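Example (one chain per record):
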Amino acid sequence: MTETEKKFKEDVKKQTNELLVLLLKKTGVKKHDLYEMITREFIKENLYLLTPAERKHFNSLAL
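Predicted structure:
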Protein backbone atom coordinates (compact mmCIF):
# COMPACT_ATOMS: atom_id res chain seq x y z
CA MET A 1 0.00 0.00 0.00
CA THR A 2 1.41 3.39 -0.97
CA GLU A 3 1.70 6.31 1.43
CA THR A 4 -1.09 8.08 -0.46
CA GLU A 5 -3.39 5.07 -0.03
CA LYS A 6 -2.51 4.83 3.67
CA LYS A 7 -3.21 8.54 4.17
CA PHE A 8 -6.55 8.24 2.33
CA LYS A 9 -7.54 5.23 4.44
CA GLU A 10 -6.63 7.08 7.65
CA ASP A 11 -8.59 10.16 6.52
CA VAL A 12 -11.67 8.06 5.72
CA LYS A 13 -11.47 6.37 9.12
CA LYS A 14 -11.02 9.69 10.93
CA GLN A 15 -13.88 11.39 9.08
CA THR A 16 -16.15 8.38 9.57
CA ASN A 17 -15.55 8.56 13.32
CA GLU A 18 -16.08 12.34 13.36
CA LEU A 19 -19.34 11.95 11.43
CA LEU A 20 -20.53 9.22 13.79
CA VAL A 21 -19.82 11.41 16.83
CA LEU A 22 -21.66 14.35 15.24
CA LEU A 23 -24.69 12.26 14.28
CA LEU A 24 -24.83 10.60 17.69
CA LYS A 25 -24.81 14.04 19.29
CA LYS A 26 -27.53 15.36 16.97
CA THR A 27 -29.76 12.32 17.53
CA GLY A 28 -29.11 11.99 21.26
CA VAL A 29 -28.04 8.36 20.84
CA LYS A 30 -25.12 7.03 22.89
CA LYS A 31 -22.46 4.75 21.39
CA HIS A 32 -23.46 2.02 23.83
CA ASP A 33 -27.11 2.24 22.71
CA LEU A 34 -26.05 2.09 19.06
CA TYR A 35 -23.92 -0.97 19.78
CA GLU A 36 -26.86 -2.68 21.46
CA MET A 37 -29.19 -1.88 18.54
CA ILE A 38 -26.69 -3.25 16.03
CA THR A 39 -26.09 -6.34 18.17
CA ARG A 40 -29.83 -7.12 18.34
CA GLU A 41 -30.22 -6.63 14.60
CA PHE A 42 -27.22 -8.86 13.88
CA ILE A 43 -28.61 -11.61 16.11
CA LYS A 44 -32.07 -11.33 14.54
CA GLU A 45 -30.66 -11.58 11.02
CA ASN A 46 -28.51 -14.62 11.82
CA LEU A 47 -30.75 -16.76 14.02
CA TYR A 48 -31.26 -19.16 11.12
CA LEU A 49 -27.68 -20.35 11.68
CA LEU A 50 -28.53 -21.88 15.08
CA THR A 51 -29.36 -25.51 15.55
CA PRO A 52 -32.44 -26.39 17.62
CA ALA A 53 -30.15 -27.36 20.50
CA GLU A 54 -28.37 -24.02 20.33
CA ARG A 55 -31.70 -22.16 20.27
CA LYS A 56 -32.82 -24.15 23.32
CA HIS A 57 -29.66 -23.07 25.15
CA PHE A 58 -30.81 -19.44 24.84
CA ASN A 59 -34.29 -20.12 26.20
CA SER A 60 -34.34 -16.90 28.26
CA LEU A 61 -34.36 -14.88 25.06
CA ALA A 62 -37.37 -14.53 22.80
CA LEU A 63 -35.94 -16.27 19.77
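Caption: The two ends are 44 Å apart (CA to CA).
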